[in-house]
Amino acid sequence: RDDWLILMLDGVWLDKELIAVVALGVAEDGTKHILDFALGATESTETAKGLLARLARRGFAPASGGRLFVGLDGSAALKSAVLSYWPDAVIQRCLAHKERNIQRFLRRKDWKDLAAHFDRLRKAQGLVAGQEALKDLERFLGERNQAAQESLREAGDELLALHRLEVPATLHVSLLSTNLIEGPFRNMRRKLERVSRWRAETEQASRWLAYGLLEAERGFRRIKHAEDLGALRMALRRPQKAI
Question: Within 10 A of 7 (CB to CB), how many other CB atoms are there?
Fold first, then answer.
């Protein structure tokens, strides 16, 4: 198909020395599809590039005239791989991962306030409101732990990538985290809970993983508020070059 808007890319550990990098795509009608996966010993750029190379050969590309919206958990390797194929992709950092990372630097009694700040960020409509929420979050962390504040700053503008597109905030529930792909991972693990040994030297790992992911895909529904994806497609259009 030719109406891909969203790519979710994430790694799932199958064994202590075997990881699968999995790609999930979302089309303009809101349908989700497991696209492919690649196995490796680490979540490396090369493993991800191999996966994206196969997708590109099969014709996966952003909708005509548009950029790709990509949700990542913060992996530098996955980001590097994505930008090597789609340099103008809009990279959104997963807010759930960043919140969990910041929790490590704070006292447990501060976690409730941290969650409230992130909830405000998730609900903020548009860039201005998002920037205000992020600024208040940074101030909150600066008053409690410098390392926590630096962890927030490390993510940079990627925490506000979706806000910057000025799309309806109804899409935030699906696109400000990598839950779209982590949900299938949980379902896949339930299907394969009896697998105790993953043999990377054979086709066994690929076969079992393919089975588990396809079974998880059977339960897919359209993303929430799929009717607003038209606004995302408009926002992802490449700027027209001046003549």
Answer: 24
